[in-house]
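Changelog note: in this version the structure field was regenerated for every chain. One regenerated record is shown below for reference.
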Amino acid sequence: PLVAERANCITIGNDVQINDYVHIAASESVTIGNNVLIASKVFITDISHGSYGANDVHDTPLSSPAKRAITTNPVKIGDNVWIGEFVSVLPGVSIGNGSIIGTMSVVNKSIPPYSIAVGSPAKVVKKFDFETNKWIRV
């Protein structure tokens, strides 16, 4: 029963390209949309070992990380997303349709659609303007 519940926790859309050394760890839900390009050495997870303030639950640093309770928070990657090399996508994040995540970024908060986000932590630096058909700095 536990295995059956987890059998469908990773959902991958159509025309998705996942390159070498991509690690997807899911216990609840990781959803990848259609036409997504994931470069090499990307880490995507919905899992954390322990709780560090969410819902006012705090695990102690004196406990072994491996023995802390597993917590999960779903990850959703929209359609037409491009994720660059060495990116980490952490629990609870949504990446909106048409967005680009720059190389070596750590995505710890959701990224709106049609955005370019870079850095650690990832921050939106450009958004696509459909009226001018150009990427505009924010």
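Spot check on this record: The mean pLDDT is 93. The helical segments are 2-6.
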